[in-house]
């Protein structure tokens, strides 16, 4: 066999990945365009560029600059953050159900926000910060529980079944906290809390968009690098060490980055259910099961944009938060993934 | 005799309080094929974990080419010594070529940029295990034996002077076992010298056929080491495997052939079962 043949095979795979990425990014941009221009209030393309250029068109400028544009951008950014986070979790934990939303990162964020609302009277941006703190606290709790639970082999580590079990436990704890506090809130506060814990783009502001964008500018290249560094670890810990990698360290870094991404996204939009869980299997299916952080991020952005479009514009008077829509789609897909996984285990 | 590749002194390895390998002194000469034998749980895999730096010595030292193993950085070490563990994991969706290319990791920079020798090494590895036709096939679709050859190719693509293989023939039929062992014995470095191969094998007759040196482990200690003729004697087989066996010479190749007669009974009055 010739080296040139190997080179050609490798190049063909790279080209397929590039095609998938280009298609997904085009679709994401198109979806953002649809979200901004269409709906109950439509904006023409020339008007949109005039508004971006600084021209003031009564009514339209306000709606585009204060609602539609930040909403589309934040939806894409948060969706991408959830999607990338899901891809990192999936690669490290090797389980399609092991995503930050199932493992209690989102539940921790919701618990943090609701607790801040009840105990500190937090509102608006304060809720977002409390959500961030809650998500990080949940991640630390999972890490603590899974490292202190020693496996039968006597080796402690943050990766593996114990991490999944600890995550599911923390998710239950977070949800219980939310329900417990919600029962004590005044009706008005409880309504606000309910919207936040469902997750929505209704309060998309430029402030929040800046927070998520700053994180993404650093986190996307970091995620691509750390995902590549996970390649030896995905062959199992022994072969990874044999290849000169530090699988434990790389996996910890990947999960940490995944937690930060999920936490920041949750802080800005609320815990949009199942976006992290859904993105990776969809993106992976486009590349025969290969996981790509960029593709997962683009799919996450598409899901959030589409869910927001459906919830806010396409259901007539029943305006539903995006998180309700993603939850409604996500639950059956999660069941389907469970069934697939059982099949995979049998074959 | 040239300086040993690996040299251990008083090496003990264990998991927490449980010691799996104790007080092992051993020297592996360059270019030799060394086969580790021993019953299940005798410490073979643990010894491999020590040599491949999965497990730090509890006591004693491991030296590699004269350097203490602890002093060496992981990536340069992975360019010297490759390891094939017993049960590596197949990532989803990869083709044979993509999986084999993962063996190039130690030759790449930290951000994963391909190294200049990659294509050449991958092509050579695929040819050596006769997987050229499967180069573009998804690994999930291959049979167990083909998949095992993919793993061997990954280790060969790592392109190291020394390879450690933990039961590399486990999933193979007899013809492929013989083919693989002949391949491993015949491995050559680009400069023409022989690759140093250290492998765990359960099939004693194949071990006798391929090994330059056999090391027999029993309960974490070396109970015999030497040429196949020296190690494969009825006395040592009885001690290491509790096996009653007769040893004859292969009429063509001359190496010892083990003819098992039964499991040695701990209690001498019990009737011995003939296999």
TrEMBL record, chain B:
The chain positions of domain ABC transporter read: 6-244
Say if the entry is tagged with keyword Cytoplasm: no
- Give the PROSITE patterns listed for this entry: ABC_TRANSPORTER_1 (PS00211), ABC_TRANSPORTER_2 (PS50893)
InterPro entries (alphabetical): AAA+_ATPase, ABC_transporter-like_ATP-bd, ABC_transporter-like_CS, P-loop_NTPase, Siderophore_ABC-ATPase
Stored SMART domains: AAA
Q: Where is the signal peptide?
A: none
Superkingdom, taxonomy of origin: Bacteria
GO cellular component terms? plasma membrane
Q: Does the keyword Cell cycle apply?
A: no
Q: Give the bilayer topology.
A: Peripheral membrane protein
Which residues span the membrane? none
The alphabetical list of record keywords is: ATP-binding, Cell membrane, Ion transport, Iron, Iron transport, Membrane, Nucleotide-binding, Transport
Name the Gene Ontology molecular function terms of this record: ATP binding; ATP hydrolysis activity
Report the locations given in the UniProt record: Cell membrane
Gene Ontology BP terms: iron ion transport
Q: What is this protein called?
A: ABC transporter ATP-binding protein
Recorded source organism is Kocuria coralli
């Amino acid at each position: 066999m010739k080296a040139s043949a190997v080179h050609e095979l490798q190049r063909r795979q790279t080209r397929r990945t590039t095609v998938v990425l280009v298609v997904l990014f085009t679709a994401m941009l198109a979806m953002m365009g649809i979200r901004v221009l269409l709906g109950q209030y439509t904006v023409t393309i020339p008007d949109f560029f005039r508004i971006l250029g600084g021209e003031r068109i009564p009514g339209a400028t306000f709606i585009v600059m204060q609602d539609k544009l930040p909403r589309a951008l934040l939806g894409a950014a948060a969706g991408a953050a959830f999607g990338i986070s899901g891809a990192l979790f999936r690669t490290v934990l090797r389980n399609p159900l092991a995503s930050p939303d199932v493992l209690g990162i989102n539940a921790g964020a919701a618990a943090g926000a609701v607790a801040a609302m009840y105990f500190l009277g937090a509102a608006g941006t304060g809720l977002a910060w409390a959500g961030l703190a809650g998500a990080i606290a949940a991640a630390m709790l999972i890490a603590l529980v899974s490292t202190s639970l020693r496996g039968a082999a006597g080796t402690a580590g943050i990766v593996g079944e114990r991490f999944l079990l600890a995550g599911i436990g923390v998710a239950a704890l977070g949800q219980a906290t939310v329900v417990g506090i919600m029962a004590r809130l005044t009706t008005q506060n409880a309504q606000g809390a309910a919207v936040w814990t469902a997750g929505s783009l209704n309060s998309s502001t430029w402030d929040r968009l800046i927070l998520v964008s700053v994180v993404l500018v650093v986190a996307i290249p970091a995620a691509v690098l750390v995902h590549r560094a996970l390649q030896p670890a995905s062959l199992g810990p022994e072969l990874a060490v044999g290849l000169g990698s530090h699988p434990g360290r790389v996996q910890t870094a990947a999960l940490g980055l995944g937690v930060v991404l999920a936490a920041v996204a949750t802080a800005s939009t609320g815990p949009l259910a199942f976006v992290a869980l859904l993105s990776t299997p969809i993106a992976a299916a486009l590349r025969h099961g290969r996981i790509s952080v960029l593709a997962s991020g683009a799919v996450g952005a598409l899901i959030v944009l589409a869910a927001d479009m459906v919830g806010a514009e396409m259901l007539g008077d029943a305006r539903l938060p995006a998180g309700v829509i993603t939850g409604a789609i996500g639950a059956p897909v999660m069941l389907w993934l469970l069934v697939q996984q059982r099949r995979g285990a049998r074959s | 005799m040239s300086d040993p590749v690996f040299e251990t002194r008083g090496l003990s390895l264990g998991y927490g309080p449980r010691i799996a390998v104790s007080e092992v002194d051993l020297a592996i000469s360059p270019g030799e094929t060394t086969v580790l034998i021993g019953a299940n749980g005798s410490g073979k895999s643990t010894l491999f974990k020590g040599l491949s730096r999965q497990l730090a010595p509890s006591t004693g030292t491991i030296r590699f080419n004269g350097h203490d193993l602890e002093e060496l950085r992981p990536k340069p070490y992975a360019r010297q010594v490759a390891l094939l563990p017993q049960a590596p994991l197949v990532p989803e969706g990869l083709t044979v070529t993509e999986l084999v290319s993962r063996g190039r990791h130690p030759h790449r920079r930290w951000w994963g940029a391909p190294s200049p020798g990659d294509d050449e090494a991958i092509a050579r590895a695929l040819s050596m295990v006769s997987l050229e036709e499967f180069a573009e096939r998804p690994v999930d679709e291959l049979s167990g034996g083909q998949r095992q050859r993919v793993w061997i190719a990954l280790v060969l693509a790592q392109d190291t002077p020394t390879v450690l293989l933990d039961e590399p023939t486990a999933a193979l039929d007899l013809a492929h076992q013989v083919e693989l062992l002949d391949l491993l014995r015949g491995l050559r470095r680009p400069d023409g010298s022989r690759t140093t191969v250290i492998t765990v094998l359960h099939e004693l007759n194949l071990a006798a056929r391929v090994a330059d040196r056999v090391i027999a482990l029993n309960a974490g200690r070396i109970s015999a080491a030497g040429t196949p003729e020296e190690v494969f004697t009825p006395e040592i087989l009885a001690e290491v495997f509790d096996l009653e066996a007769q040893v004859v010479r292969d009429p063509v190749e001359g190496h010892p052939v083990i003819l098992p007669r039964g499991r040695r009974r701990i209690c001498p009055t019990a009737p011995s079962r003939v296999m």
